[in-house]
Amino acid sequence: MVSSRLSGLIAATYTPFHADGTLALSKVAPMVEHLIRAGNRGLYVCGSTGEGVSLTTLERCQVAEAYAQAANKRVPVIVQVGHNCIAEAKHLAAHAEEIGADAVSATCPSYFKVVDIVSLFEVVQAIASAAPRLPFYYYHIPAVTGSQVDIVSFLQFADGKIPNFAGIKYTDKNLAEFQRCLSLGGGKFDAVWGCDDMLLGAIATGARAAIGSTFNVLAPLYLEMIRDFESNRLAEAQQIQLQSIEFICKLGMYPFHTSMKELLRLLGHDFGTCRSPQRSLSKSESKTLHQGLQHLKCLFALDFAQSKLRTTPQPFLNNGP
């Protein structure tokens, strides 16, 4: 296991497309500036949000390189390299190391399900070994991969067997299990939270970092929530989390990531739409979405939250190694 730790909000980045579906890589750099200005302390590239599984291997390499170059070591870039073909995942991991990414992450294969701890260990060991100088984070998202391997038992089994194994990206809603992951071995594994609508609960449980899609647009609001929690203003923090939940529910009435890209377009970052099988919004859906978003308090609160960003270190935001 490595000693590096992630901290703060880490934006799960979107992949920009032209109208014809080809990559629009020139739009990556302005987005990175926006994400850093908003208070994000890392970028998670080619994950579920970034449609990594809908990209070719070459496209994934190009997207990862564009984000690594734009970040220029100002914030860590974690590249998600999971693939149903382990050889392709290893290629992507090696490429991430070559381009100067700061960490590698991977889901397990999902077509043929990983059903036991040894099989999962072999997958993780193979991918992690392809980028031996980078910390590796297993992307635990059982709702998508279908893997029901007990994650606590897996961490216990893997402990000490993979030199660059750093921890997990935990995208499930079992806070009790997440707390167990955090506490294993006196906190030796870096467990990063992955469900935006339960971030407050995760912080209360002990999370030091979180990766999320909605951090692309609501990072200042989440940072205000974190400051409220750390200043014992629990009611205020709960209200902000509720605003986030309302926002996520509103977008969830439509294809979520397509809706997020539509919102990014409204904010000046036209990343196109999502690739099939994720569908585009109809004109009537776009109109209804715009109207619904105008009534959400969390969007009106963005300017307020942005103005409250401070340079004073906060525990959640300044707890690296």
From TrEMBL:
Binding positions for pyruvate per the UniProt entry: 49, 211
Record-linked PROSITE patterns: DHDPS_1
Domain of life: Bacteria
Alphabetized UniProt keyword annotations: Carbohydrate metabolism, Cytoplasm, Lyase, Schiff base
Stored InterPro entries: Aldolase_TIM, DapA-like, Schiff_base-form_aldolases_CS
A GO molecular-function annotation: N-acetylneuraminate lyase activity
Main location: cytoplasm
Active site: 139 (proton donor/acceptor), 169 (schiff-base intermediate with substrate)
E.C. numbers: 4.1.3.3
Pfam families: DHDPS
Record localization: Cytoplasm
Name of the featured protein: N-acetylneuraminate lyase
Annotated gene: nanA_2
